[in-house]
Amino acid sequence: MENIFTQWFGDNILAYILIPIPVLIWVSLFALYAVLAERKISAWMQNRIGPNRTDKYGLLQTILDAVKLLQKEIVSPYRTDTIWYNMAPFIVFTAVFLGYAILPFSSVFISADLNIGLFYFFSITSISVVGVLMAGWSSNNKYSLFGGMRTVAQIVSYEIPTALSALVVVMLTGTLSMQKYALIQEGGIFNWYIFGGPGDITKIILIPIMFVSMAILFISTLAESNRTPFDLTEADSELVAGVHIEYSGMRFAMFFFAEYAEMFAVSGVITTLFLGGWQSPFGDLIPFLNGPVMQVFWFLAKSLSLVFVQIWVRWTLPRVRIDQLMTMCWKYLIPITLVNVFLVGIYMLIFN
Amino acid sequence: MAELRTEELTINMGPQHPSTHGVLRLVLTLNGEIVTDVKPVLGYLHRCFEKHAEAMTYPQVIPYTDRMDYLNSMNNELAYVLAAEKLLGIEVPERVEYIRVIMCELQRIASHLVAIGTFGNDAGAFTPFLYCFADREKVLELFEIVCGARLLYNYIWIGGLSHDITPEFVKKTKEFIKYFRPRITQVNNLLSFNKIFIERTANIGILPPDVAINAGCSGPTLRGSGVKYDLRKDDPYSIYHKFDFDVCVGEGRYGVAGDCWNRYFVRALEMEQSLRIIEQAIDNIPEGDIASAVPKRVKPVAGESYVRTESPKGELSYYIISDGSLNPYRVKARSPSFCNLSVINQISRGYMIADVVMILGSFDIVLGCIDR
Question: Which of A128, A149, B71, B151 has its CA 20 to 30 A from that of A17?
């Protein structure tokens, strides 16, 4: 019963072909409108108007931008490593899109409820590092190479605090399945893991740990999806555009597609782990608000608010330097997450 | 295991690069991300200003000075005009002097706003950049009221001004002063005291005072190192001796004096001082005819004159030689950006690529001024 498509069409190949389609539609729509939203929100924060010439409120802006990019000639500079150069943007996007497989949009819709869901997500999305490094290396451009090398250092380092801060929830739930996280956190806002999850009164001890864990998970996913203040891959004032520098047309758009897709994917994971996934904040008080369709609404609402925070952070903060980025990861985030894991372990030892 | 072979990487930063502030080219030698050598390559914006000036009459040179440091046209005009007036021996009416000071200080605010905004942009903060440009727009509107131009004014003439100010200008300027004070605080809170920004700029690119003096640095670059030297105080020109203002120096509030943060913060402090000067001047503009001292024909006797002024970038001076004809025999401009840039190799070794960008931004160079 885990998936509405397998319910309708039975457990056969047709269902598995159909399952990714709504996800792909959502990713495309999200990427298109997140770009517009980012431009509109930044305009709002900077006392500007933002795109407003195409259709009402500039609603067609990014669609037309995408059409323009599709029409553009694909230029590849002299002496690029053609195969890798052409493949890289698609590897980056595919890696991110595969991560969507385990996002529980609703209690009846998850593409694949793997029993190692969270582990799968962290491993499959980090494959995008390979794509970025390929792009950086094969572009035959020193700036691209710098961008690629920086990304590898950055993403590989930030894998650790990401995984460790998610580990706190894994310890408490004892599962890696994304659907189970959402199921466990039923019963209203105070049963979400940011408030210590379901449990007796002793969970109050967990609340500060959970807040810190979620903050660290948010920060490190910002770094993983290369958003300001950690956008050293692009770093437009130093490396011009980093790995994107030699790409044109749709290949360039693919990198952006991947970036925005990843923004939502990591927000979805944070939502599932700490913010109750698709659970309504009112629990079962109002059963209508916790139906399968409303669950999609809650999941998207929570994830999109996190996306908004990502955009907000981007237009407020300056960029850090590469050594400061590493310092922050290895000297602050990892020790703090380790302490968190340790404290949760002690809590479980005493109260379970 | 045998040692891996390593070699240094040479990378061209510019002439087309978002943070070289124009068409400057820096040849960086890198060891990993660490910079071992910086070589600035100039001349991409060379427009033969000095040679052109020899073929022009004295008033015709003024529009060319506008285009030197295009963020700072009023101060360029003033410096040239003062030099020409010295050559001609003209005493300008007090009203003209007051208006010139107001314009120059407004221009200083506009120039510093660009410096602060682009410096923030170099650090990756885009929002302060737009805030600064929105405020700069207000200053440009004031200029537009007076002379119709927003960037290249040709406003300050030898012996006078092109247009007199209007009551509307006075009213709008007072409104601007009231509006702009809180905005300085806002930009400071958003950018100057931001933890990440301080981490990026404090203790980076430290320019010791003796090196700065030996290299001929001036303006905020020199004052950022803690040297209290401002030509408006130390060698007053025009009527700056009449106004009460402080010379701001880098005090090492974050980092040490002479680093990027202090060079940057001097500009934020100077905007406040400029407001003070404008406040004092705008209420006391004497009546008079602005055109009374404008010469019918600018034909100085043979001789030479040298005038130095404090432009927002530093010490801007003009050296004019006259052979008694209608055209200057020679016009030499001493550009502050050129001298300030000369220390970049000395102070950016051992830092990272991202720091070189910050160091370059903290000098607030304008290539029009460097290449002329």
Answer: A128
